[in-house]
Amino acid sequence: GTGAGNDLYINQAIVFIEDAIQYRSINHRVDSKSLWLYRWYYSRTCQWILSLTITVILALAFVEEPSSLTITSDVRYRLPAWNPPCGLTESVELLCFLVFVVDVSVKSYLIGWKEFWKNKWLMAYILTLIVSLADWIVSLSFFCKESVRIRRILRPFFLLQNSSMMKKTLKSINSTLPEMASVLLLLAVHLSLFTMFAMLLFARTKDNQQDKEWVVYFRNLPDSLTSLLVLLTTANNPDVMIPAYSKNRAYSIFFILFTVLGNLFLMNLLTAIIYNQFRGYLLKSVQSSLFRRRLGIRAAFEVLSSLKETPASAQQSCVSVGALLQVLQKAEMDSRCKQAIMRSLKMCSCDQLSAAQFQKLFEELDKDAIKQHPPSPEYQSHFMQKMQFAFGHPYFGYLGNVVALANIISICVVLVMDADKQPSERDDFFLGAINCFFILYYLLEMLLKILAMGLKRYLSYPSNRFDGLLTVILLILEIATFAVYGFPHPGWRPEFMGLLSLWDMVRLVNMFIVFRFLRIIPNMKFMALVVTTLLDLVKNLRAFAGILVVVFYAFAITGIMLFKGAVVPLGNTSAANTTHDNGTLQCGTYEQLEYWPNNFDDFAEKNMISWCSAQAEIIYCLLYVFSVHLICRWAKIYFVAWWLISSVIWVNLFVALLLENFIHKWDRRCQRESLSDIEYQRTVELMFRDVLEEPTEEELMEKLHQHPHLHLCR
């Protein structure tokens, strides 16, 4: 009937608007049952369950064999880790797989059979599930004793396929690779040519004393390539040059030329190309997101214009204000946007909205989120007004910063004076007394600010919340210290009581005091700009962090499969793969640096190695010990591949995004005057808002007519 048809159109409009808000595709089924299933699938509860399932299956790597549940990863002191019995983690895995089966089934049904065959991500999802389930069955067949588990490497895919922004980011990275490959090829030519020069320059001679450069670094082609590749990271600089330089200082020209051309020119050229190309592809991705939003809004307009209450005499399609209000009441959207749209509708004098008016209403979704602080309380007393003026003035905040700086300086002085003292000689009276004084001042400052600003206004500022929280924590710690060890007095060195000693309590208090000093950041404009840029990256660029997790996870699992048990303490004669020629330990080697905790025996430690080698700090040592001492020369491929992906490609991508975010904020700071009571919150899409192109009506209608499940009247 007419009522049922109108309800269907209303529900379709609700879903299309929610799709537009979340930048989702509208190419899904639009019948009543499918719409209910669609809204259920994208409900907070359902998405929370899916996110929890992905987190659980990724976290299994910390628990399953080889378990990371040990205090230390040092092979010399590590106790045997607890490994779960066969079937425990596998049961959790099976539950996760069942959730993923439901997830892929619902997704496949909602988009329809024709769209399913066009969706490569869904097909890959199903293939990943099939391979994982097959590997799970094989694992149980071998009673969990098999050394290679393919499904572990595939787990990051579940995280990747669940985020549309991660998919777009991956697509942007993939599109950037051809331009990056040209510079990497040039880098490879540079490395190869200098390797040949090095082998000719440092060739073996009759004098063994003069052949240290050849023996250590350039003995053959693989060693020469490795030495210069590590020099490109500066991890072995100037060690690689010293033997030749001690022979003749003119040899330094070779190494200087290599470093200047490789590090200063080619690596920075790679950064510039990545910044230019990736920004372009990210802009295209955001442009497609804008198109999805406009398409969703236009689709909602078209289905609402099909309602029976629409006047038949209208020259063009229009939507009644009442129908839109009905949709807004049921749609899941930000309360700020909803209220702004409803205010605009109330101010509108007409009863019918055209397509342009309808689209303009929802431009509220594209605007900056503006947070206005509550007003200060209005006191009637003249004395209270003076108090409010004095303690609400910025100078009172500056005074607090000076006091915090004095606290930091006093802590530094005491630490320097007590640096060489034995614990039994240390007198904690002075440090305890000054901490007590400063914490009381911080408490008084917080209370006076609340008095001047009011509690709601005080808590509306992030800097005040940070300051107040740390002040409360410091007060609780100080009260706990006094309750356990009494008040400070000369010779204050009581016996150990409770969970922490007096010195531990004092140190903990001092750590929070040092951390609290970060309150000065909002008062320094340029520093605040840098910090807000970093915070924006954390909040808005989670997709990049997600892909980084995927890469870390895959390399960690692969590293465990390849190198588990390779690192063995010196003197362990049961180890077949280790050498025992350790009468003297060469400076800079794995053994001399005591890198024993850096091994591949569990998932947590492998991630720590990946982090350290991504900074190129230990890459030379790892290359040497795993390719020469422990495994074989082919192990170098693993470490070089990780260095290329993490240090060369990923770090440059992060630098490019950091530059883009900082430049954007700097430009906006120059254009927008500083308003103390307003905070602007930006998203990735809004970063590029000024340069995006609006889709035309013809493009939107053409796309709508191609919808596989929606059939428009016009």
From TrEMBL:
The chain crosses the membrane at residues 45-63, 92-110, 122-143, 180-202, 253-275, 395-417, 429-448, 469-488, 508-531, 543-563, 608-626, 638-659. It catalyses: Ca(2+)(in) = Ca(2+)(out); Na(+)(in) = Na(+)(out). SUPFAM superfamilies: Voltage-gated potassium channels (SSF81324). GO terms for biological process: calcium-mediated signaling; endocytosis involved in viral entry into host cell. The keyword Calcium applies. It is a multi-pass membrane protein. It is found in: Late endosome membrane; Lysosome membrane. Keywords: Calcium, Calcium channel, Calcium transport, Endosome, Glycoprotein, Ion channel, Ion transport, Lysosome, Membrane, Repeat, Transmembrane, Transmembrane helix, Transport, Voltage-gated channel. Residues 52-278, 398-662 form the Ion transport domain. One of its GO terms (molecular function) is calcium channel activity. One of its GO terms (cellular component) is late endosome membrane. PANTHER family: TWO PORE CALCIUM CHANNEL PROTEIN 2, TWO PORE CHANNEL PROTEIN 2. Belongs to the calcium channel alpha-1 subunit (TC 1.A.1.11) family. Two pore calcium channel subfamily. This is Two pore channel protein 2. It comes from Urocynchramus pylzowi. The gene is Tpcn2_1.
